[in-house]
Amino acid sequence: MTHKSAITIKDVAQAAGCGVATASRVLNNSGSASADVRERVETAARDLGFSFSAIGRALQSRRSMTIGCLVPSLANPVFAEAVQGVQAELQGSGYQLLISCSNYDEAADDAALEMLLSKDTDALIATMVAPERSAALQLAGRRGIPVALMFHDPMEGFVTSYVDNVEAAREVARQFARLGHRRTGFLALRFSTSDRSRNRYAGFLAECRAGGLPDPALIEIGEAEARQPDRLAVILGQHPGLTAIFASNDFLAIALQNAARLLGWRVPQDMSVAGFDGIEIGRLLEVPLATIETSPEAMGRQAARLLLERLQGGAPVQPPALSFHFRAGATLAPPTPGKGDDGRVAAQPPSAPPAETAQQG
């Protein structure tokens, strides 16, 4: 048996058959746990000689009891829900969350992480432009500070909580092909600075080629076009032959529908649209959005669990991808005969007031 002086909350959790965060909630008498789990944790703590005072010493010794969290934006509900998941998982652990936003800027990413490190945070959770190039993350590694990424596909040197962007995008291509679409497009915002967007395009492209379809058109836009439907309509009007477009996130998919309306194109009769993320507002539209539905809250919870396990002496272990599913919505339909390649031409879009900002996912 482990020597009493070396007992940690991880030992208690393993003996009780639960996670570290759950054991912490029980021993701190904070947060919910079933009667069965509570009894197992308390029994394991007694058998191992692990007391509440021991957990206090284990958690507080040479630690600030803070975890830094960096996301691109809280205006995008995808990231807001992930942060809520982190907070929910940390409840009862004794750790407080310090949150920073970078507005999708690589330099701001590093500046924010350097600020969080200056606060002596015990661990970091991050969604960034380019974690593989981040000097601040390298500094965290040299200091032995645990890091968990969110939304990023796995990359060497980091653990990450993620959805398989490539496979999810393949599913969108399969849905388009099933309905008979051949001329498709991929709409991306800040394509060069989002590994998520690039991986989604890569999966979409690969599945189109696997199905013998033409390569999808890559339509890259900037913030101005994403915010203003009339400007996006001008770009969309340059692709009159496309019958289905996959937007790299739901906000872009909604902006795309607004732009199509300015051109007099109906969704889905004249153009099918699919997004990515599954934000709730997509269900509430007059034409509910077809999208890849994920669980950002579960992603945040998983990232927090990874850090709590590291903070209790566990080794970094990359978990498998979280689940996703395709939500059919009402923005998909077979291409209308006579439309698309032969029957639709670009229209002159009327002027329109700026719309709600499209957020990068």
From TrEMBL:
This is Substrate-binding domain-containing protein. It holds the Pfam family LacI. Residues 7-61 form the HTH lacI-type domain. Keywords: DNA-binding, Transcription, Transcription regulation. It comes from the Bacteria. One of its GO terms (molecular function) is DNA-binding transcription factor activity. Coiled coil: none annotated. PROSITE patterns: HTH_LACI_2. SMART domains: HTH_LACI. Transmembrane segments: none annotated. Residues 329-361 are annotated as: Disordered.
